[in-house]
Backbone:
């Protein structure tokens, strides 16, 4: 994690050092989540893993299969940290077959941000943002017709959003209860739920209402929204604080809204972000030190600071209750959206999220599939989804053969 968020991590680490008895924390940054996963995998292979590795949620199966990491509940016994106080939806992601593997730390959801001033100038109610796919297209059309923005909406071409939209329709990404009841062998990109998402996304683009910032192009999407080229932005909750400031600096008021869905019943969303892993090979002094730091990081005081300076969830219920009592959400309602969205999520294999050892590859296949869909007029949605499905299944078969 770089930029301001990296500085926040550094300051948390040095605050911890000041109150810990002789424990030193050296925080190093390895780039994006993908780069951090690669750096961790290389360090593991070289027999020199870090005491704590931040691994994004989709690296969970790979980390387990590496056999290198100790379950966090062994590092921090329950009498030191009561996991009953942690958010269920977060624990449900990282607890597999009854074992909590890693320490939830920076947990997020996908939400939409919108420009309240642009809504107002287009005659839209800034307090009633769209909730459905059709609503996003309609609002986008109103915004561009009124000349408030160039294009209605943007979000990074990132498989994460597709994954969320399938979960909202209670559709698993892969078989075997999303890879949680056994190894995933089949992909579900040809499902009706998936077709609904890609039909809408391709149509939004065809109507000139989706600005495609590029594959996993988070900052390009953010810039397009902050410079008021678009009125809506799909993004992570991780950035509510900086996005609020960015909107203010660009002269508009920020709104947040739940992820739009096709309509009908919402099943909910899958937790995103990353968690913290500790290798079992650490000597016991280092393992205890890592446990102390992980426990301290998720104490309510630190979680409140983390949440209010970013937008990542506080992973403990007490932190949310304290912020509610202090009136934080009344004063900062944009932070409330993701908490409500998470609380309304119904637990199911779809909302627990998929486990695939080859998840990073699956994401690339989905993202490249979308590009081929919008760049080639002769490629139908069905045709592209068939390809995505086949490629993800090939990747799963190759991986499963290696680990079995
Ligand atoms: O940007 P983050 O940290 O909310 O993470 C988003 C995705 O979950 C990454 O896989």
Residues:
């Amino acid at each position: 994690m770089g930029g301001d968020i990296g500085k926040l991590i550094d300051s948390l680490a040095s605050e911890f050092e000041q109150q810990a008895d002789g424990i030193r924390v050296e925080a190093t940054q390895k780039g994006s989540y993908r780069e951090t996963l690669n750096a961790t995998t290389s360090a593991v292979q070289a027999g020199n893993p870090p005491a704590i590795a931040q691994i994004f949620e989709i690296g969970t199966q790979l980390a387990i299969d590496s056999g290198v990491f100790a379950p966090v509940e062994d590092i921090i016994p329950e009498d030191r940290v009561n996991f009953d106080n942690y958010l269920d939806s977060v624990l449900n992601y990282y607890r597999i077959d009854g074992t909590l593997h890693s320490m939830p730390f920076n947990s997020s959801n996908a939400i939409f941000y919108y420009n309240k001033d642009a809504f107002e100038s287009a005659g839209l109610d800034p307090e009633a943002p769209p909730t459905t796919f059709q609503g996003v297209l309609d609002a986008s059309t109103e915004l561009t017709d009124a000349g408030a923005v160039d294009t209605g909406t943007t979000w990074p071409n990132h498989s994460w959003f597709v994954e969320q939209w399938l979960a909202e329709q209670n559709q698993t990404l892969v078989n075997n209860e999303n890879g949680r009841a056994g190894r995933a062998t089949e992909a579900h990109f040809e499902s009706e739920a998936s077709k609904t998402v890609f039909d809408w996304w391709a149509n939004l683009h065809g109507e000139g209402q989706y600005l495609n910032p590029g594959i996993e192009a988070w900052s390009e999407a953010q810039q397009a929204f902050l410079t008021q080229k678009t009125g809506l932005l799909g993004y992570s909750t991780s950035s509510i604080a900086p996005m609020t400031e960015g909107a203010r600096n660009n002269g508009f008021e920020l709104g947040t809204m739940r992820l739009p869905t096709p309509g009908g019943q919402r099943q909910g969303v899958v937790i995103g972000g990353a968690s913290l892993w500790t290798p079992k090979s650490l000597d016991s002094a280092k393992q205890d030190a890592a446990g102390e730091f992980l426990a301290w990081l998720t104490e309510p005081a630190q979680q409140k600071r983390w949440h209010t300076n970013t937008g990542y969830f506080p992973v403990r219920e007490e932190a949310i209750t304290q912020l509610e009592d202090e009136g934080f959400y009344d004063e900062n309602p944009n932070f409330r959206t993701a908490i409500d969205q998470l609380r309304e999520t119904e637990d199911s294999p779809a909302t627990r999220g998929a486990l695939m050892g080859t998840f990073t590859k699956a994401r690339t296949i989905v993202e490249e599939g979308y590009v081929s869909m919008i760049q080639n007029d002769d490629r139908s949605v069905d045709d592209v989804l068939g390809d995505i499905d086949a490629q993800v299944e090939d990747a799963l078969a190759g991986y499963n053969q290696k680990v079995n």
